[in-house]
Every structure is written in structure tokens, then in C-alpha cells.
Amino acid sequence: MQICAVIPTHNHHTALANVVAAVRACGLPVIIIDDGSDALARDAIATLHAPQNDVVVHRLDENGGKGIAVMTGFAIARRRGFTHAVQVDADGQHDLDRIPDLLTAARQHPNAIITGKPVYDDSVPTARKMGRWATHVWVWVETLSLNIRDSMCGFRVYPVAASLDVWKREGIGAKMDFDTEIMVRMFWRGADVISIPVRVIYPDGNISNFRLWDDNVLITLMHFRLVFGMLVRLPGFVLHGGKWQPDTANTGARNGTEADNISHTRRSQHWADIDERGMYWGMRFLGWVYKTGGRYLCLGVMLPVIVYFFLTGDTARKASRKYLRKMARVNGTAPPRWRDSFRHFWRFGEAALDKVAGWSGEIKMDDVLFPDGQQGVFSYLPKDQAIVLLVSHFGNIEMIRALASRERNFRVNVLLHQKNAARFGKVLQKLAPESQVNLIEVSDIGPDTAIMLRQKVEQGEWVVIAADRVAIGARDKTVMVPFLGDPAPLPQGPFILAHLLGCPVYMAAAWRNNNQFEVAWEKLTDRMVLPRGKRVEAITKYASQYMAWLEPRVRAHPMQWYNFFDFWARPKDKDDQ
Amino acid sequence: MTTLETELKAFIIETLNLEDLNIEDIDSNEALFVEGLGLDSIDALELGVALQKKYDVRIDAKSDDVKNHFASVHNLAKFIEMSRGKP
Q1: Closest CA to A270 of A319, A221, A311, A317
Q2: Architecture of B3-85 per CATH?
Q3: Which sign, positive or negative, has the C-alpha torsion B30, B31, B32, B34?
Q4: Is A516 helix (H, G, I), strand (E, B) or coil?
Q5: Are B12 and B47 a contacting pair, CB within 8 Å?
Q6: Closest Cα partner for B29 from B47, B44, B45, B8?
Q7: Hey, are the CB atoms on B48 and A447 less than 8 Å from each other?
Q8: Residue A451, min C-alpha distance to chain B (Å)
Q9: Contact B57, B51 (CB under 8 A)
Q10: How far apart are CA A540 and CA A528, in angstroms?
């Protein structure tokens, strides 16, 4: 492995001598590409030419942009027999002390791109941080993975031949869009991306070549190119089981141990595994896009994600088909086609967006249709009236929670029994920290939970629980209740809980109706009584009443049913006595 | 039969609305659940909630002892006395 350094420069010359000296100190030969600098800078750069000391300057008379300069440097490097090149910017922003770490990683992963990942402190302006996150999220969408933790830092080690090959075959932007685009395209071709944390240095008197308008347009166009490129490659991605290249492409790179400080994320990480923090920022970003670009831009950003889920989510797609078939039978409409399933997925994406909007206060009371002249959510309930609210995964129940906690200052406790739901909820909560919603993750309802909720009810708080999902893996018993003509299992837990809490029980739903939201609620009973010996019968009665209330609403808006699993499958009640 | 046991029987009858039963009908060593009194898991939850409120005992659903504590009035009385003994 032969490694050199390539330093492109356009008018940067003050820090250049120090940069060159630091790189030479690491024992690397240096190739400087003067990318059409003005006369003053040109002369200063030319003085650094010292072939006896392994520093060469190559001048391009016309300014072609960073991509052209780097690739010219790589071409020279290849001619001189180098296999890898460290790309260093000329303005001294890069933490050159980390060059040895980059080289170590490159030796262990010869086919990978090794990139510096800037670590920022709190002094970075929010706008700048948001801008970086916007690019991160774009790149995650474009690569359908979270492997690329930073795509903007130019401080990298490239495999020279592979980079030149990508450059030659694919139209890569040559200017400010270069760093991101070449990384995404090499990733598609099977190169690993390995990140090394680096410091960020803002040198004094630094001139920036970034042009606010032109370069932002360039970068936006680049992302359009890359999203398009991702969609074109998507069938292959799905075919290879969630990889851009067949498995054999890059195995050699993965041998060897990992050096310290190297965060090398596994290739298998996808959107589904996105951690809470990443999701939080992703949703903040989505909220920001919603505010600045509106709903349609937001949907545009989400399109590839939904396409991805649709193509890879086999179980969910089948469940959707089964549900839509039953719905068509009951509603007397035409049998569903595959595009109806896609629309079903699409509505799910829209609903997620509505949740974000609801919690960030983007949805106004004017957008909400209340039943029969009501002015607000549960406006007739006294302030301290505790209730149990039975909800479902139909429409957008978040709307009710958001509205209730916003408008009336109700204290609301939401029971969630799925990790992902709890995670999503926590993210929503961060978007609206002032909301008085308490999320409680429960796997099954034991004395602890019951006692805790009883105390909350005594203080006049609400308890919201989904009545349409049987907790996975929990010892939740079920009752069979008709839905769309066939018996479906509903959990007993919510009804038992309502019985224990002894307060009035309401049913509620909210759903999208064109550009507005409709909400509906109704009292199920003042006191849920489950008499000993006839408990299951009583629960079945209440559960049937609930589903009978819900079903016509679902039938009127079939695409807003968000249970993407076989709703009618009988769970294995091995604990049934 | 201790006074606490008698108290507990009255409490169980009241909490679970067992109107057709008297204190004398409940044997301190008789199984409360399934066989004996025929109470079920929902009763257990209800009783647990009420006991916690009245006697301030901490019931940890995860510990295996719960089943044992709730097996009979006698065990329940012992459990409550033990909890009270703790500072």
C-alpha cells in the first residue's frame, strides 16, 4: 500500500505551508493542485514546489472546482504508483494530528473510505447544526443506512483507483457537492465508510469559497440526483437483501481488528434500528422542513423511506392486503390492487407527519372538526374528572392527546406496550416538552401498574390505552370480537384495567378528512363492572361495543387503519386456563 | 385467629363485594384463589391495590413471594405484619 497526500487549493495559501509541513512530518509525499488561483495566491503556492522534498505543485489554469482538483491529483498519484491518497484541505481546518489514525484505519480497510467526523462543541450555531443534520438525513435516505455519519468533511483517505473509476463512470458534482456525492456513490458501489472523530479548527482570517446561493442550489440538485440514483438502484438493493452490492464485494475489507477511536458501524444498520437520538433529530429535521417547506416538501423527503418500507416490509404488506380484502368485501368495493396497499403505506407515512405537526403546534383548532357543535375536546367534562380513554391505531389518536393536553391542561397518562411506540412517543414528547403527557411503558398490567394508575386517577388524571393491540410476548389474554365480519382477538388488559380503576370509560378516535381532522368520542360506561365468574363474557360485551363503535369510522376511512399485522390471527393462548 | 386476620377477612369481603360470605365462612388457611374462595387474578389485582392503600405494604409483582403471600388469609396477615415490622 502506497499512500500520498493530495491538497487541492483555490486561493488558500496562508496556511498551506504549515499544512504541507504537517503532512510531510507524517512521511507522506504531497501533491498540491492549484485550482486556478488568482495571481497573488498562485505565486505563493508555486514557491512550495520542491520535488527533492517530495512536494509537487500542479497548476490548473482554469478554476474547475474541488472535484476536478482532487481527481487531477488522484490521476497524478496513480501515475506515480500510489494506491491511496489522503485528501487534506488547504485552509488548515483539518486536525492533522489525526492523520496517523486515518492511515491505520486505511491499512486495515483498504477498500473503504476513511473519513474524519468532526466533533462539535456547543458553540456551533444552531442553524449550522441544522444544516449539517439536513445533509445527514438526506444521505441516510440516499444510502438507506446510517453508516455515513458525516458526508461533508473533506478530510479522508480514498482508494485511488476505485475513486477515479467512480468519477469516470458517474456524473459527480465537481464543486461544493463533491465531498458528499462521491462518498454516497462509492458506498453504493460497496465501499465501507469508516469514521474517525476529529477536532474542528476555525483558522483566523479564513476565507470561505462557499457561495451562499449558488452552492445551496448545487447541493440541493445533488441531493435530487442522489435520491433519484437511490431509487434506480433500489431493486438491486432489495434483491441483495438490503445491501447495495452482493455480499462478496467487500469481504476483504472486513478482516483485521479495529483500531481505537474508530467507529465502524455495521452495514446492516437500517432505518428501523435508528436510535432515539437520531430519530429525535430526524423528526426535528422533519418538523423544520414542515415549517419552512410545508407539508408537500416533507412528503417528498419521506417518499423514498416509504417506498423502502413498502418494498422490504413483507409481513406488513401481506397484512395490509388481507385487511384491504376484508374491507373491500364489507364495503362492497373492488378488490384491492397492489397500489392500494402502497396507498395504505403512504397514509401511514402521512399520519406520522401529522403526529409531528400535531405535537409541534402546527395544527390549529380551526383544522379540527368537532362533533355536534362541541367547541373543544371533551369540553363538557369537569376539570378533575378522571377517565379511561380507549383508543386504537386508527387515524391519528395523537391529535386527541395533543389537543387535550394543549387546550385543557388535562394530565394524560398513555400506556404503551411496545418498545418502538414508547420510543416514538418519547421523541414526540421532546418536541412538545410543555405537554402534560406521561408515557408509561408496560408489558403487562400487574399490581404495580394498577396501583400507580389508581393514584393518578384519584388525582383526576386521564389514562389512555390502546384497545386494539395484544402486547407481543405478554401473557395478555384475549377475547374474540367481530371486526369487518370476522372474529378478531382484542386484549382483555385494557378492560380489566378500566374495571380496576373504577372511573368512567370513553372511546375516542381522530382521523384525517381531506385537509381537516375529525374527532369523535363517546362514553362506553360510567363504571366498567366485570362480575366474578362472568368476567370474560362482560369483557367480550364491552369489547364488542367498542369495536361496533369504531368499525363504521374505519369503514369510512379504510386507509387510516394502521395495524400492519394480521389482525385476525388468533394468538397462541398457552397461558389460558 | 389473630385480630389482623379477622380484619383482613372483613376487608376482603368488602373490597371484593363478597356479600354472600361472612367472616366465619373464610378459613384462615384456606386457599384464597382458584380452589378455596374461587377468586381470580383480577381479584388479586383488586385486592393488591386495596391492600397497598390501606396497609401501605409494598407489593412487588416481580418477586415470586407474591403468590405465597396471597395464598391464604394467614399468609397475608403474616406478610402485612412483616412489612409493618420494617422501618
Answers
A1: A311
A2: Orthogonal Bundle (1.10)
A3: negative
A4: strand
A5: yes
A6: B8
A7: yes
A8: 5
A9: yes
A10: 12
Cell of B65: 413471594
Beta bridge partners of A158: A85
Residue among A451, A532, A535 whose CB faces B49 most closely: A451
Tell the residue number behind the cell numbers 381522530, with chain if given.
A510
Of A447, A499, A530, the CB nearest to B61: A447
Write the single-letter amino acid at B16.
Answer: L
Q: Which residues pair with A49 in a beta bridge?
A: none
Alpha helices in A240-392 (DSSP H): 276-312, 314-331, 338-359
pTM, to two decimals = 0.58
| A472, A493 contact by CB (below 8 A) | no
Distance CA A48, CA A21 (A): 10
Strands A486-491 and A478-483: antiparallel
Number of helices and strands in chain A (H, E): 16, 16
What lies within 8 Å, CB to CB, of A190 at 6+ separation is A111, A244, A245, A249, A250
Cβ count within 10 A of residue A574: 6
Q: How far apart are CA A506 and CA A388, in angstroms?
A: 6
**Residue-wise pLDDT tens digits, A76-88:** 999 999 999 999 9
- Distance, CA of B61 to CA of B63 (rounded, Å): 6
- Nearest-angstrom CA–CA distance, A124 and A572: 54
Q: B61–A446: do the CB atoms touch at under 8 Å?
A: yes
Question: With contact defined as beta carbons under 8 Å apart, do A296 and A366 qualify?
Answer: no
Mean pLDDT of A130-146: 80
Grid coordinates belonging to A352: 406520522
Q: Which residues of B touch A445 (CB under 8 A)?
A: 45
Domain-wise residue ranges, chain A: 3-253+262-273, 349-560
Q: Which CATH number fits domain A3-253+262-273: 3.40.50.2300, 3.40.190.80, 2.60.120.830, 3.90.550.10?
A: 3.90.550.10
Contact check, Cβ <8 Å, B59/A447? yes
Task: Give the residues across from A117 on adjacent strands.
Answer: A197
- Tell me: the pLDDT tens digits for A386-403? 899 999 989 887 777 666
Beta pairing, strands A505-513 & A516-525: antiparallel
CA-CA distances (angstroms) from residue B40 to A392, A529, A530, B61? Answer: 28, 15, 12, 16
* Residue A431 in contact with partner chain B when CB distance is under 8 A: no
Measured in Å, how far apart are chain B's first and last C-alpha atoms? 26
Contacts of residue B58, defined as CB under 8 A and 6 or more positions apart, other chains included, come to: B52, B83
Band of the pLDDT at A477, cuts 50, 70, 90?
confident
ipTM of this predicted structure = 0.78
Render pLDDT for A446-456 as a digit per residue (tens, 0 to 9): 667 777 888 88
Burial (Cβ within 10 Å: 0-12, 13-18, ≥19) of residue A430: middle
Contact B45 A530 (CB under 8 A): no
B10-36: b or e for each residue (b if 16 or more CB lie within 10 Å)?
ebbbebbebeeeeeeebebeeebbeee
CB B72 within 8 A of CB B31: yes
Burial grade of A339 (CB within 10 A; 0-12, 13-18, 19 or more): exposed
Type and span of the H or E element at A509: strand A505-513
Spatial CB neighbours of B28, under 8 Å, sequence gap ≥ 6: B1, B5, B72, B73, B74, B77
Q: What average pLDDT is seen over chain A?
A: 79
